[in-house]
Here is the input.
Amino acid sequence: AGLMKGKRGIILGVANNRSIAWGIAKACADAGAELAMTYQGDALRKRVEPLASELGAYVVGHCDVTDPDTMDAVFAEVEKRWGKIDFMVHAIAFSDKDELTGRYVDTSRENFNRSMEISVYSLTALAQRAEKIMNDGGSIVTLTYYGAEKVMPHYNVMGVAKAALEASVRYLAVDLGDRGIRVNAVSAGPIKTLAASGIGDFRYILKWNEYNSPLKRTVTIDEVGESALYLLSDLSRAVTGEVHHVDSGYHTIG
Ligand code: 0WD
Here is the structure.
C-alpha cells in the first residue's frame, strides 16, 4: 500500500465517478499518493469537489486546456502549495459527438482542429508546464484507445487524434528522458463514461469487446487505474514511450 508514499501528483480529467481519471485517482490514493485535481467549468466543479474530498485530494481549480491562462494558473498554484510534483495524469479528450458517428471523411475542419487541440496538443502543453515543477524520475500517463491503431466504427477523428497522441508520447519520452521523467499511455478497452456516451453504437462496441477479447469481458475504471498506477510508480522506472493495453487482450485479436 505504500507504493506511492511521499509522491504528489496532479490528475486532470475527472468529470464524475465513472471517469477513468477517477479510477486512477482512487488507485493512487490507495497506494499513498497525495493528489491534486482540476475540473473543467463550474458544472463539473460540483462533481469533482466531493470526489476529491473522499480521497483527501486538493482541488486546484478550473482548467480548460484550450485556455493557456488556466493551465498556467493551475501549475502556479500547485507549485505554491507543493513546490514539486512527481506525476501527472492526462485523461482529457473531446470531439463534437455529431462527428463520432458516420464517416470519417465527413469530418469538418473546425472539429478536426478542436479535437486535435483538446485531445492531442493538451498533453504537450501540460507536459511543458509539468516539466518545470516535476522531480527527476517523475512519470506522466495519458489515455488512449485502440482506434489509434486500427479503424474502429464511429471513432473517426478521435482515432486520428489518438494516433497523434501516441506519437506525442514517444517524442515527449525522448525529450523528458534526460531527467528520468517517463511518458507512457494506457490504451484502455471501452468503458461507459460521459465521453464514451458520445460515440455512435457504443453499446455494440462494448458487447463486441466482451465477446471477442481473450478474457471475454470488458474492463473497469479500477482495473485501468491499477495498471496506470504501475506506470506512475517506480515499479515501471525503466518503461517509457510505451502504449500499454488494458483491454482484456482485445488488441491481440482485433
Ligand atoms: O471507453 C472509454 N471511455 C475510453 C476512454 C477508452 C480509451 C481511452 N479513453 C480516454 C478518453 O479518450 C480520454 O482521453 O480516456 C480519457 C478519459 O475519458 P473518460 O474517462 O472516458 O471520459 P470522461 O469521464 O467524460 O472524462 C473526459 C474529460 C471531460 O469530460 P466531458 O465528458 O465533460 O467532456 O475530459 C475533460 C472533461 O473533464 N475535458 C477537458 N478538460 C479540460 N479542458 C476539456 C478541456 N477543453 N475537454 C474535455
About this structure: The mean pLDDT is 97. Strands lie at 8-12, 34-39, 58-62, 85-90, 134-144, 182-188, 243-246.
